[in-house]
Amino acid sequence: xxxxxxxxxxxxxxxxxxxxxxxxxxxxxxxxxxxxxxxxxxxxxxxxxxxxxxxxxxxxxxxxxxxxxxxxxxxxxxxxxxxxxxxxxxxxxxxxxxxxxxxxxxxxxxx
Length: 111
Description:
Layout: H1 10-22, H2 30-37, H3 42-54, H4 57-70, H5 75-90, H6 97-110
Helix pairs in contact: 1-3, 1-4, 1-5, 5-6
């Protein structure tokens, strides 16, 4: 089994996670991208988007999970992340079934 070591900052993790989430419905809307841009800088976004593009779904989940552990995220911080993900999903005015399913899956995996 491949080892998914990551050494991300909290900002990098959150940016990667947000990019992962907005791709739940296989499209990045202008509104979602604007919402992410309010939470990170362009350099971090580009770096994490480039990494996301190289990863498959399994690698993405492993990297997110590993980074949450490395950064010692507690329940409250994870809950805050999920609230931010919900806001991100709603930023384009819709909350697609694929987005809902992704959020439920992430909650089961990461909590």
